Amino acid sequence: MRFGMSATEVVDYMLTALFTAAAVRALRQGVLTRTRACRSRVDHLLHAAMALAMAVMPWSWGRALPELPQSVFFAAAALWFPLTAVNSGQERQLSATAKRLPYAVGMAAMTWMSYRAAGHSHQTMAEGVPTAHQAMHLSHSMGESKADSVVTGVFALYLLTCSLRSLTRGMPALRATTETADNSTSLKSACDRFWDGATAMGTVVMLLMPH
User: Residues 22-43: what's their mean pLDDT?
Assistant: First the structure.
C-alpha cells in the first residue's frame, strides 16, 4: 500500500481486506465443518466464491475476469438459497425461505454487478458507432442508465436494511447473554451476524461505488 492514495483507493483496499477475510472464513467453514449436511457445505462454499469475486472486483486485473460465466454462476447461486429451504409445512417453509432470502439477494446483487460490468465493456467497445446512430445510441443508453439506477437502488436499500439488522440485532441482550451457560452458542451467533452484516454492507458499497 503506497502513501498519497485517493479516498477511492483506500475504500478499495478496505473492501478487499473485508471480503478476503470473509472468503477465508467461509471456505474454512465449508471445508472443515463437521456437519454432514450437504446444503450447509454448499452454502459456505458459495459465500466463499462470492467473497473472493468481490475482493478482486475493485481492481483492473479483477475486472478482467469473464463477466458472463460469473453472471450465470451467481444467478444459479441466488436460486440455490430459496430453493433449498427446508420443506416441512407451509409456515415452516415460508420462515426458512425468509431466513435465506438475504443470501439470495446478495448473490443476485453480485449477478447484477457482473451484468453491469459486461454492459460497460460492451459500451466501451461500441464507442466508435457511426455518427448517424449516435443520437439513438445515446437515448437508449440514458434509458438503460435510469433503469440501472433503480435496480441498483433496490438492491442497495434491501442489503443495507439486512446489514443494519444483523449488526444491531441482540445488542440490548449482550450483558444478559454473558451470564448464561450457553455462551459459546451466543458468541457464534453474534459472530455469524457480524459477518453477515459486514459483508452485506460491503456489498452495498460495491453497488454504489463506480468501478
Answer: 86
